[in-house]
Amino acid sequence: MKDEPLLVSGCPLCDIYLKKEIITKMYWPLKVDDIPKSEFIIIECKSCKIPMVIYKDHTTSINREAWGRILYRCKTIFGNDITLRNKPRRIFDHFHAHIENMRKY
Questions:
Q1: pTM score
Q2: Whole-angstrom Cα distance, residue 56 to residue 62?
Q3: CA dist., res. 68 & res. 7, Å (int)
Q4: pLDDT band, very low/low/confident/very high, at 104 (cuts 50, 70, 90)
Q5: Pick from 30, 31, 50, 53: most CB atoms within 10 A?
Q6: Distance from the Cα of residue 46 to its chain's centroid
Q7: How confident is the model over 12-48, as pLDDT tens digits?
Q8: Are 84 and 70 spatial neighbours (Cβ–Cβ below 8 Å)?
Q9: 84: closest CA among 94, 70, 105?
Q10: Domain edges within the chain
Q11: Residue 57 confidence (pLDDT) above 80
């Protein structure tokens, strides 16, 4: 992983990293101060109210290793029955995935 992520001012997902302002529930990392050090964050989506993963870089795709780390963390938090839906509905230029089919946690 590179030292400095590519973050774009004005992108609502990048702004979470730039401003460290979480207005919904945060699942990962455990503390807001750890957001800049985290490769990805998991928060509740503001519009659909389900957890979603947001990758740190302003990119549309991630590599296989990053996908594995994300999937591992999501399954650790939400259980093995989850699926990740990475088909964006609103934000098309920043990788994020919604966590679906969760057991009640």
A1: 0.88
A2: 10
A3: 22
A4: low
A5: 53
A6: 12
A7: 999 988 887 788 999 999 998 898 889 999 999 988 8
A8: yes
A9: 70
A10: 12-100
A11: yes
Amino acid found at 85: R
For 76, the token pair is: 């650790």
Using CA of residue 30, residue 11, residue 70, residue 86, what is the dihedral sign? positive
Of 68, 73, 65, 67, whose CA–CA distance to 95 is shortest?
Answer: 67
* Token output for 105: 């946690």
Phi/psi for 45 (5° steps) reads -65, 130
Q: Which of 55, 47, 105 is nearest to 84 (CA)?
A: 55
Residues counted in the chain? 105
Instruction: Kindly state the tokens that stand for 17.
Output: 């990293």
Q: For residue 30, what pLDDT is reported?
A: 92
User: Both tokens of residue 23?
Assistant: 């207005």
Instruction: Return the residue matching tokens 């963390």.
Output: 73
Is 80 exceeded by the pLDDT of residue 87?
Answer: yes
Please give the C-alpha separations between residue 5 and each of 14, 17, 45, 81, 84, in angstroms, as whole numbers: 10, 10, 22, 31, 23
Q: Supply the DSSP symbol for 104.
A: P
